[in-house]
Amino acid sequence: MHQGIMKAWLESSHLSGSNSTYVEEMYEAYQEDPSSVSEDWQVVFDNLPAVNGTSQDIPETAHSKVRDYFRSLALEGRAKGASRVTDPELDAKQVKVLQLINAHRFRGHQNANLDPLGLWQRESVSELDPAFHGLDAEDMQREFNTGSFAYGSDTLKLADIVKALKSTYCGSIGAEYMHITDTDEKRWIQQRLEPSLGKANYDISTKKRILEGLNAAEGMEKYLGAKFPGAKRFSLEGGDALVPMMREILYRAGEAGTKEIVVGMAHRGRLNVLVNVLGKRPAELFDEFAGKHDEVQGSGDVKYHQGFSSDFETPGGNVHLALAFNPSHLEIVNPVVIGSVRARQDRRGCKDGLQVMPITIHGDSAITGQGIVQETFNMSQARGFKVGGSIRIVINNQVGFTTSNHEDVRSTEYCTDIAKMVQAPIFHVNADDPEAVAFISQLAVDYRNEFKRDVVIDLVCYRRHGHNEADEPSATQPLMYAKIKKHPTPRKIYADRLIEESSISADDVTGLVNTYRDSLDAGDCVVKEWRPMTLHTVDWTPYLNREWDESYQASMELERLNNLAQKIVDIPESHKLQSRVAKIYKDRVSMADGEKPVDWGFAETLAYASILEDKKRVRITGQDSGRGTFFHRHAVLHNQNDGTTYLPLRNVADEQGEIDITDSVLSEASVLAFEYGYATAEPGGLTIWEAQFGDFVNCAQVVIDQFLSSGEQKWGRLCGLTMLLPHGYEGQGPEHSSARLERFLQLCANHNMQVCVPSTPAQVYHMLRRQVVRPMRRPLVVMSPKSLLRHPLAVSTLDELANGSFQSVIGELDALDASKVERVVFCSGKVYFELLDKRRKQEITNIAILRVEQLYPFPQEEMQAALADYQHVKDFVWCQEEPQNQGAWYCSQHHFWAAIPAGAQLTYAGREASAAPACGYPALHARQQEELINSALKLS
Ligand code: AMP
């Protein structure tokens, strides 16, 4: 509603003059939050005439409706609004009271008691002072209507209202939720906070459970500190409440029917969570501290990166817990966790997210500093990525390594402000009040389950030691650490409170401390709810200890393939295709009928169809994956009449695997991390991430370095993710030519992943099928084509698809006389077709061309077979489009040398070394391209 219109309406109505100010104020309050005015007033404001211009546009009938409404209220004398109209002075005060309530809902958190150390310098918020609203001491004793404030009765003395507001909004909980636009959500939160004044009111057994959590958290750190002095453990101390908090979340989730929870967290407090929440045996952890380890393959990882899985018993049933392995790069684990959750939800057919819940634990500097957090918030409601909300916990110890000055770490009031971009409610809570922590944790779980959206708990605490235990924090935070030294531990504060209120005796408290220490001495699991795993739904054993060159069933009956080919071109007549798409599908019909050779898009689609027919899942995300960046895929067909979509791949068999092809949010890092998480939790199907252009993968480098290439080596976690990265030098400039092949090759060792450059439709078909049919689960990195998608020579037959298999090396195809060959050129990708074309045109018969379609693991055996006829040749050339310092030349050269006959020479034909991946001038590109082809073919 436009302010000017409101003014005009007021001036023309019987409410003009003195009444108008207070109505205007009330209207302002209504605009900020409709629930802040009484329901009668809401009806009035809701029914005000619609705005479509200036005040003159308001029809007179609307005025009279409003006027009549007021009159009827006044006459009946029954409603609050009516009394205000008839007693404007009192009503003006009433409006002020409602505004005071509203102010607490909006800004109470700014004066809440959140910092356990009491160091936060917070300006007092004038709107929270009754005097600011013109409410004086006399008013304190007057009764006012409480409007929608959900505490006590409809009317209360102002003094009681103020007390209730302070308790609810300015105590140990700072609730930020008025930025949410959905009234139901706000009301729901009010109904949870206000009736109990933000207090938990737990029975003794829950209080004891909370104390046990704090006792375990502190006991564990003290024990480690005494047993392994100076060893890095990234102590939780100061944030001890995380342990009872996690446990309360698990209990609550279990009661709500959650079956699996995936947790992501960085170092801080991780060992504590591992032992005191997930139930890792302390003896195992102590062995790790002592440097012992099992004789396992791989590099292993430090103990505070380790993941863990277990089941946890709750009164509502057992819950499977999985703590994700994570690297040092803070926050990047979060999209991995969400991806893992989505895979589990998909497997369970759980659409509302209730059965599997993510918990992500953040640092205060990291959540605000790392862009990946924004990316995951952005994903939280996006179709391909949503999981029904995440519980996001910030261990806000007010310092990031050595940086704590507010001015240095962020530009916002709270570290959690980023969450407002998705209107997530944010609950700041003083970690020294563990009951408030437990209360808000339960509320968070319920909110997530009710509204399927992210919710943030900002656990405001401190860090008792330095960043790690070898650090001296007072070097950089002298005042904070002087305070911390004198500050009692959370366990002590809470134990004293329970003793004081006679909930527990001092002896019991001492008993708890001793019993916990004894159980650590014994080394056995200290979590009484721990249960051996039975709830996880995937058996990984078929995929363990597999190799890339294991034989597998690549071929299938031609009849079956023909049948699939017909299915994927079958589109309902009512689904009107765009003309270019219709042409592509018309061609596909001809391909299915065997009248035209199979092109890339058709072969790729057939690969998916065959996997789906085998009842395996296919998931593809990328920035344009439905259509394909280069207009080749068209897996998702858009009806030109009504915009609806149709996926032929959803109709390949009566019973088939599920397929999701979703255009992703415009991110690389979080989407790739999500898909990594998905693929590490779902080995059965095919999971693909496609970059729009290959160079975009740069933005996801951390995922490639820290998860994809090294996850198996570090953590024994297998991942069969496929990455399609468009790559090829077509004169599109430095940014859209290269998927940085060299970077992947540099990361290759221990057969950690496969790097392929398929050059024909049959090859892409077999490569994709192999990734599922063969039981090895390792990442597949594909330099996928652009111009080759429509190259007249890059075609295959249905028979090659049905009866062939993936060829790691493709030997010379033309009928050359091998004995006359004097030079052999190796290459990968589209340059092959340029070499072939020129050799044919120039009628060169003494140069053979071999394609290396899999650069890693290097296919020595296939290479030897392809070179069998060329053992007399002394002149071998590696030809590439990329500059010399890029592409495969430096990283794969040793394999080429090993493949060529003894005494032969290997030389390079390609672009000169260059700092940029490609040149920006089309003419220069063409010249360079011609030169490298000529050089490979010994043409001047
Ligand atoms: P989770 O459901 O993630 O807790 O996993 C349960 C168990 O499955 C783990 O303890 C592992 O033994 C196994 N597992 C899970 N994910 C993988 C993976 N990506 N690679 C190998 N084994 C896995």
From TrEMBL:
CDD domains: TPP_E1_OGDC_like
Keywords: Oxidoreductase, Thiamine pyrophosphate
Domain Transketolase-like pyrimidine-binding: 598-791
Cofactor(s) in the UniProt record: thiamine diphosphate
SMART domains: Transket_pyr
Function field: E1 component of the 2-oxoglutarate dehydrogenase (OGDH) complex which catalyzes the decarboxylation of 2-oxoglutarate, the first step in the conversion of 2-oxoglutarate to succinyl-CoA and CO(2).
Name the record gives this protein: oxoglutarate dehydrogenase (succinyl-transferring)
